[in-house]
Write a structure and sequence with these properties.
Ferric Hydroxamate Uptake Protein, Chain A, domain 1, 6-stranded mixed beta sheet, Chitobiase, domain 2, 302 residues, 2 domains, alpha+beta
Length: 302
């Protein structure tokens, strides 16, 4: 049957509206907005930043495919390329796409991550010669403290370990985002530890940093009380000394993320605590802070 011109125009307008909507192409009720970020080189090179309206049937993969040119593999469950940038090697180093949901590395493929609303989905294309496992990052602040991870809520435990007034600053940053701090044991909770490295290093999760990125996912370490920045290959790049603060996140045995707000001196811890905001943390895996200026980690270059 031949359609009239009016019907054809109506269909064209409907398809255009759906394309403009991006995410939300699936059936079901609206679940809320989702933030989609695509970057390269540990967040240094921005590619895409979108706020989307998700439906009940939407997944992280659906949201990404609706807003970028995506090539998949393994039956469509995993991303091989975004906008033509694919898994490869550069100068012998392996590069691939990795993604985080609410600042936590996803344990499953993007097609298996259902969107509940309010998630922050971040894809990053990077060198993984030092590690292919970065359990948590700070670049989706205030996630994971707000709304948990991928729709699952966790209590948030704040631990002040000799941090002095830096603890007041860090606590105020969390509460300013509407985070309700829990009391009691930290088991099963998202934790924030604030204090000098000499105190924090006794914590099993924090101490992973001294074992390097392959264990902690953090491209920094400490030599005594001095912070040392690592490059993307996991090699020492710059000795920042005890007066540089660090904001980083890791995880112990696959548990909820543990954030570290630390440094070699009281002043360094204060610098780190003052950096708990989007201005300093946005799209960074971790940051070193000195004189109010953030240095994204890992250090660029080799």
């Amino acid at each position: 049957m031949k359609r009239g011109r009016g019907t054809a125009v109506a269909i064209a307008l409907l398809l255009a509206a759906l394309a403009a909507a991006g995410c939300g192409l699936g059936p079901g009720a609206d679940v809320g907005s989702v933030e989609l970020t695509v970057t390269r080189e540990f967040g240094r090179d921005p590619v895409l930043q979108r706020s989307l309206e998700a439906k009940e049937s939407d997944t992280a993969m659906r949201a990404t495919e609706a807003n970028a040119d995506v090539e998949t593999r393994f039956g469509g469950g995993f991303v091989h390329a975004i906008d033509g940038v694919a898994e490869t090697e550069h100068s012998g180093d392996p590069y691939d796409w990795f993604f985080f949901v609410d600042g936590v590395e996803s344990p499953v493929g993007a097609a298996d991550v259902s969107l509940q609303g309010d998630e922050r989905v971040w894809w990053d294309y990077r060198n993984w010669s030092a590690t292919n496992h970065v359990p948590a990052v700070v670049g989706s602040w205030p996630a994971p403290f707000v709304n948990g991870v991928a729709g699952k809520s966790y209590p948030v435990v704040f631990e002040c370990e000799g941090g002095g007034d830096a603890c007041d600053t860090a606590r105020a940053a969390l509460e300013g985002e509407g985070v309700e701090l829990a009391s009691g044991p930290p088991k099963g909770a998202i934790r924030m530890l604030v204090g000098p490295w000499s105190r924090l290093r006794s914590d099993p999760a924090a101490r992973l940093i001294e074992a390097g990125p392959a264990e902690s996912g953090v491209y920094a370490t400490f030599r005594g009380d001095g912070l040392v920045a690592l490059d993307e290959s996991g090699n020492e790049a710059r000795d920042l000394g005890p007066d540089a603060g660090l904001v980083a996140a890791t995880s112990l045995f696959g548990g909820p993320p543990v954030w570290l707000v630390t440094g070699g001196t009281a002043a360094a811890v204060r610098e780190a605590a003052a950096a708990l905001n989007q201005k300093h943390l946005r799209d960074h895996y971790a940051v070193a802070i000195e004189d109010g200026q953030e240095m994204p980690l890992p250090e660029a270059g080799r």
